[in-house]
Amino acid sequence: MEKASGRQLTKNDVLGRILYSSSEIQNRISELGIQITKDYKGKNLLLVSVLRGGVIFLADLAKQIDLPVSIDFMGISTYGIEEGATGVVRITKDLEETIEGVDVLIIEDIIDTGLTLSYLIRNLKSRYPNSLEVCTLLDRDIRRISDIKIKYIGFNIGEKYMVGYGLDYKQKFRNLESIYELNINTVKKDIESLKINSSSKQ
Prior knowledge:
This protein is an alpha/beta fold.
């Protein structure tokens, strides 16, 4: 549950039931942090978050990794992705530092079709990192189009539309501590655009 359950934010009619509570999320992040700490001991680890959704997950995950990590960010825009199409991917913010010889871990809030992530992996591999892996809080592999390997997964999810903890609805509600199901009755008019946006982001 949200720490302040009486907050007006949690009473919005856009929100349905809680799918993953704050405590469930934090417990899983702690487990991921322990595993990442073990796997990257003695390595030069860089966490790369894809803006904007992954930032909240990265912030909490970094605190659970008992290693001296570096952090950087990338911004990506994708245009024209439809069912079975690749679309056009553009980097809107690049990394600040070189990653040659560095162990890079891409941090995502949710991975869907994997199209944008596939492009990002190819792009970063061309920069000669020592290693390149992916960590996502949510994995919706039933929609996967690209063949990608995800080393760390928080939760496997289905078709439900979600909001909170980095996930947005019309760029709002990312600051919820729990992950909610969107109230489909309230947002019914936006369902088609939600489908398009969900495909576009990944």
